[in-house]
Amino acid sequence: MTPLAAFGIGLAIAAALLTVVWIIQLFTRNAGLVDVVWSAAVGLIAAAYALLGDAPAAARILLAALALTWALRLAGHLAKRMRGAPEDSRYAAARRAWGARADLYMLGFFLFQALIAAVLSIPFLVVAYMPEAPSLGVALAAIAVWFVSVVGEGTADTQLHRFKQRPENRGRVCAEGLWRYSRHPNYFFESLHWVTYVVLAIGAPYWWATLASPLIMAGLLLKVSGIPTIENRAAADKREGHDEYVRRTSAFIPWPPKS
């Protein structure tokens, strides 16, 4: 199978899964499930490319193992977070803004998310079709980046969850653990995760195409769907100490806080 045909299958997987989520939210009126399924869909796309590609088995097995483990951890975390919670404020606000056409527009938004998943997964395609397996040094370097990113993101998620579980922290900004050094360490490590496949694809044809994914992810989190939705004025006014926290703490890359 050609890489282009495999890309079509990856896009179809994501579109089918997110269409099912759209149908579900018609009944539940909670679109938050899309975040869970989107993460899982990216992992499934990697697995599909690993099965369809013609790279040496070692490269494809490593690709599937890294991507699926990342996807399952993230999807599990998001599923746990949304269980029993009301619809995410982003989607609730979108429903209000879209009015009577909200369901139709939501479908378009979900399918756009499927396209983003397929585009972000292009590094998986590059690795799945590379003519030679990565060297031991390259593979170990990729695993090291993956390990730091997944452990870092998981640690940040756990620290924030524990902070929010304590009643005395209601309405306060979390500035503990990794959150002392970055206002969004989870976003930083999520973006770093995509560097894994940049490293893994070193030496492959079209290696340069893998550079787009970490840049796109960082751009989305910094400018579109991440920080802007969390640090808008309305949300900031609800959190004690927010302005001081923003003043002294790096927005993205973990860095010692300003005095």
Overall description:
The protein is mostly helical. The chain is built from 13 helices and no strands. The longest helix has 30 residues, at 136-165. It is globular. The model has no long low-confidence stretch (mean pLDDT 92).
Provide the fold topology:
Elements: H1 3-28, H2 33-52, H3 57-82, H4 89-98, H5 102-120, H6 122-128, H7 136-165, H8 185-193, H9 195-200, H10 212-224, H11 227-230, H12 233-236, H13 242-248
Question: In short, what is this structure?
Answer:
Helices cover 70% and strands 0% of the residues. The protein is mainly α and 259 residues long. α1 runs antiparallel to α5 (102-120), α3 runs parallel beside α7 (136-165) and α8 packs antiparallel against α10 (212-224).
Overall body shape = globular
Mean pLDDT rating: 92
Radius of gyration over all CA atoms, rounded: 19 Å
Q: List the quaternary state of the chains.
A: single chain
SSE succession? HHHHHHHHHHHHH
User: Helical amount among residues, as a percent range?
Assistant: 55-70%
Give the tally of structural domains: 2
Structural class, from helix and strand content? mainly alpha
Percent strand: under 5%
For the sheet with most strands, the description reads: none
Secondary structure: number of strands:
0
Number of helices: 13
User: N-to-C terminal Cα separation, in Å?
Assistant: 57 Å
Key phrases:
2 domains; 259 residues; 13 helices; mainly alpha; single chain
